[in-house]
């Protein structure tokens, strides 16, 4: 056994000093390293190297165990390494290795080598000179030693201060998260170096260009202002009134890359009015004056972006951090001159931006698919998949677009289309057509390839509405909910029609609950004056479609005193009015939204008092009503304990357990422990979701998350209701994640996630959890993870839901039962019967397959004897990854498609092949597609095998 020295045994934080070895001190650097601005590596050659490090088990999220220990022989050179050991079986969120940084010279970045066998999320933190903590994430997986360079900047979150980083950094933290990987394991750390200067900056130098975002002729700008004003063909006819001295042109659109500046060119009318611009970030908004229309003729207005210095901030978290991507939210004109109306010709809007030359030089932006025929999906046989391409390269770029059309579980069409992209970000449009298949789901996938450049993959989905009669009878016992948020149609001229369409769609997906915000300032705009008209319509519409409402009572109104005794008393009178009005139809009342974060900016200790007073008020009016409390962002056990200890009563605990990835077994245990924390009371998930924006998850991946979220929550036995956030997308900006949590688009066209929810609703809406399924499917001795599975009972039926974590597999399922059906994630038949008596089905990564049988059912599985064995799932550019094919006598298998410029050749004489990765391959995920011919059934399966290309030096 390797020699070990522990820094901590997992009970909390134990600092063993802040001494630094001579190798870490600036005085011990060689002349070459001093010139490069990089300290020599700390090699962890012996146990004394850990003297500068300490360990934390993230005690603010109790349950994690672990230690930081020295391991002899585990280092890159065969010497020692630091091992960050983690154990999340008992819960918790993270463990951390912490090292103090030298104050002089100031550390600008940290280089280190990491060996991380599992794909757990890695997080890096720094504590600045004022003690404030800053954080950024880095999700990657490479099976071996990987060099990282983490800059002391570009932070994604902060706490404990004002959000402004003040150097020098005092500490550097390496965290392993309980998020999407193994719950037990260790991460090795070696060869840690401080980067003091701008060393090796050229290796990671971003590209920079100025591109034209709009010439104002694309019809996507909307005038917002008093009647008599307009915008058409680039001409802005503005009109001010005594009551409104400000007008807008509205358009939400993500800005490519990391923008540094904005340039607006107009033909001015010399009116003296002021131009302003709005920029959005995640839950943030910024505004700035561009200048004044002080003379007639062409005028150019240039302002910096970057860290948004000089921009006025409002809304969201004012922590000083800019969260990319930024997006333009609109342009405004403020009356400063004398004229009440006039005209401005809008000529051009440009952005100066930085970008990654390998992965962001070309942007492939899918547009919403369009179903041909009479309107909505289902009206015609065809679907068009439009896509927009933009290049930020210096000159024209010739290449090809590789595209394919997929159904729910098979590829239908594929092809290659040559395309030339002009410089300057000029958009190029293309469109691919597909036809509906029997699954009722279509997906278009696109990737641009040119010489040594490949874009990130992009895709879009569209789904037909299930041909079932909706159940319009209220069923409060159902656990299937969704955030319909019908309240957002308030003020819309066709609000009732939109709410009817939304509820009809939701009902066909089996949704029986909706969470609705009963905004205090809308309902009681002035003290004692109530306006219930819109919410009367909302409740009536939902219930007419068999959907029960639970009401979120929020937020402060303008005429009260927030976070005061007077404010709490006013809030309770508003809640009382709600319960008296709707108590015969609404029986569940949620007190506030996410009071553990910025939605509640007062003292946290005051929330239990508000909850207690509201609880008493609701129960006095309707003793049968249920009060939902806490409503935490995440499962914030600390805040929940604060509420319980502070005497805040509730009948059910509500949580919003957002996370970067889903570990179903761990999630199930976390929910069970949350119910224990709540004293056995029911847990409601009133928000949870994953977005499908450009650069994030694909809509197919999102659909898998939809199904696994509901299945896992129901399998916990702890959750009374689950609500996806949210049902309808909040906007159309392809890059903004908040716009793309939805299961249907803003025009109500269904995405694939709508159909996976409908399948869950149909199969499991009234089912009871029975037990977990143990389905190891790898060959004997394999370390392949088993299928994750759960079995439910619905009446006399048994329903099993199972999926393959992280990779696609062909699985032979042996099922005992009557009238067995094997269904894909959208409820269509899948799999084929094998001569050996099993069902053979393709399990996509993390996408459920359902097995349904009458009466008793037993399920066993094994990996079908047609498999592709890769030597590694992640590679560096220039490496060779080998694969072997395993076949049975009834099948054939061969490579169907490789990424552009990748090549396969026999590696030996025993069926192994080597795939060469180009030395200049861009980082990202790539698919190798293998065609499996099931000769006995005249059926083909396309088996995707994913490989991730990781740069030799990964910067974060």
Walk me through what this model shows.
This protein is mainly beta. The protein has five domains: 4-204, Sandwich (Jelly Rolls); 207-355, Galactose-binding domain-like (Jelly Rolls), CATH 2.60.120; 480-766, Glycosidases (TIM Barrel, Alpha-Beta Barrel); 769-863, Sandwich (Immunoglobulin-like); 867-955, Immunoglobulins (Immunoglobulin-like), CATH 2.60.40. Helix content is 13%, strand content 41%. The protein contains ten helices and 58 strands. The strands form ten sheets. An eight-stranded parallel barrel has the order 35-36-37-38-39-40-41-42, surrounded by five helices. Strands 1-4-5-13-7-10-58 form a seven-stranded mixed beta sheet, with no helix packed on it. A hairpin with a 2-residue loop joins strand 44 (787-794) and strand 45 (797-803). Helix 2 runs parallel beside helix 4, helix 5 runs parallel beside helix 6 (607-621) and helix 9 (699-716) runs parallel beside helix 10 (752-764). The relative contact order is 0.07. Mean pLDDT is 89; it is low at 1-30, 199-203 and 374-379.
